[in-house]
Amino acid sequence: MTNTERKVLSHLFAGLSMADIAALYHRSIKTISAHKCNSMRKLGVDNDADLFLRLRRDVALADNAFTD
Predict the structure, then answer these.
(1) Where in this chain does the record put each HTH luxR-type domain (predicted)?
(2) Domain count, the chain
(3) Which helix (H) or strand (E) holds 10?
(4) What is the CATH number of the domain that holds 17?
(5) Cβ-defined contacts of 44-49 (< 8 Å, 24+)
(6) Using 50, 70 and 90 to split pLDDT, how confident is the model at 57?
(7) Average pLDDT of the chain to the nearest whole number
(8) Do the Cβ atoms of 12 and 35 come closer than 8 Å?
(9) Residue 49 belongs to what domain range?
(10) Per residue in 6-30, pLDDT tens?
(11) CA 34, 53, 65, 32: dihedral to nearest 10 degrees?
């Protein structure tokens, strides 16, 4: 996954809208959507619900790695 794709997912997980992220990076909503879609494909998820479950799980795993 590219650095930009990771940033987009991070912002989405933090609650920003696609429009907010597009404005933040001075890109179109279509460009941000493409980054999100590419990320979803690479993660093997098909919908937003599965994407957020995957992100939540990965964040929990990362948090546990630093506390163990």
Answers:
(1) 1-59
(2) 1
(3) helix 3-13
(4) 1.10.10.10
(5) none
(6) confident
(7) 90
(8) no
(9) 3-67
(10) 999 999 999 999 999 999 999 999 9
(11) 20
